[in-house]
Request: fold
Amino acid sequence: MKKILIVNANYYKDISKDLISKAMIILNKRKFLLHIIHVPGIFEIPITIRKNIKKYDGFVALGCVIKGETPHFELICNSTFVSIIQISLDYNKPVTNGIITALNMKQARQRSSLNINGHKPNKGKEAAEALISILENEPKKI
Reply:
């Protein structure tokens, strides 16, 4: 059974709750063993993944950053996203990115929708589906 760690930046609790909810629905369907670690913001996601890299088969990064009036948004998002992909490449482990980057709360809510019909996007669901795709498309011994 594959072990998956969801690392959730819990700064916007309502948004992250919805991201986690959809990601867990998708991952539970495949019967993965799931664990969640909550961190204060997205900047703490890469080090949390790195500290747990040997314990899990895959990782889902979740959270939300909303642009303010300073360059903080660009700096935090860029450094976090580069770090996430670098960890994935360095350790040959799938790390998918369900971090919402939005200009305002309305956009963030739209990208974390719990719409039952599934027509609205949810970055948690998308990140979980991407992780499954990577894990299920590994080479098989024949």
Q: What stands out?
A: The mean pLDDT is 94.
